[in-house]
Amino acid sequence: MNGISRAAGFVQTVVQRRRGEASLPRMLTYTVTFTCNARCVMCDSWRKDSKGDLSLAEVERIFDQLPPLDVVRLTGGETFVRRDLTEIARAAVERLQPALLHVTTNGFLTDRIVDFCERRPRNVPLQLLVSLDGVGDKHDEIRGHDGAFRSAMRTLQALAPRRKELRLTLAVNQTVVDAAGAAQYRELHRLLAPLGIVNQVVVAYRDSATYSLAPQADPAPRWPGHFETYGDLSREDLERLFDAIEEDLASYAIPERSAKRYYLEGIRSRLLEGGSSPNPKCVALHAHLRIFPNGDVPTCQFNGKRVGNLREQSFSEIWFGEPAGAGRRWVRACPGCWAECEVLPSAFYTGDLLRHALKTPESLLPARKNRE
Length: 372
Hints:
Elements: H1 3-18, E1 27-31, H2 56-63, E2 71-75, H3 85-96, E3 100-105, H4 110-119, E4 126-131, H5 137-143, H6 148-159, H7 163-166, E5 168-176, H8 179-183, H9 185-192, E6 199-203, H10 235-248, H11 254-272, E7 288-291, E8 296-300, E9 303-309, H12 315-319, H13 322-333, H14 340-349, H15 352-359
């Protein structure tokens, strides 16, 4: 798909979502497995049944039914416990023609991760997001694994000097689960600075249908601005954290800065001001398609109700069927969450992210310092 076609498709999707109309997906989040080699305190993925993951042949058959996409996001569990991840990525690039491939990892399996970056198709840029929730023992505590911090740092150090060669964007995702983790933001930022890597922050929410052990879980927000943190964080903890992030945004590249400023404004509003702004129309089951490891298509991260299974049904049968229609009606009535992996696709495919960036000119200034 060329740039003109992508731009035209993007505009059409924005118009359709603003009108409340359905659209074909333009972004895929595929959870390749729930299996995980970490034992994170805020996530039950490692407790879930990991039997019945789609085979590579089944993945290829499903991808053949999907329209061309802008972004393919491969996530887990831990993505790299799947030894065929390179082949899955190749199938995604060849069949879905994305402009960007995004992969999340805890960074434990350094050799396998580096091998993936070397062997995956390089005609599409790769965005690799490595989880680091604190420094040293704090990260190990959160991830429930001795040596987790050391392994993740080894992965970052191995890949950072090779970003241009590997056509790779490298970033850290810091999930804040408590006051101690929030207090380590600055220390982690300083540690990563020599590598030219920023620690992008998200605040952990209390529950997620995706990673819940309860079938058909629905921990969705009950009112606009509803957000319950996983751990106890005082107003002072949050203010210090958000102020520190705001200071560092100038060093982000423009696309990252616009997205992070948008997320930061929304999380401040919800946790410090009792507000709900910004609050874009959700694009779950519209521009954003999720696929679970066994082929289930869920409504969204906070509604575990499945609208079909791609192992058993065709994409068209699911996407245009009544269960998906009911799911979309639920999405349109939802008061709005603030989970970054739902919010940013929604902000992008409704045009709200662009509107916000134009409203905040500092988001469009060159980065304070260049990074590879």
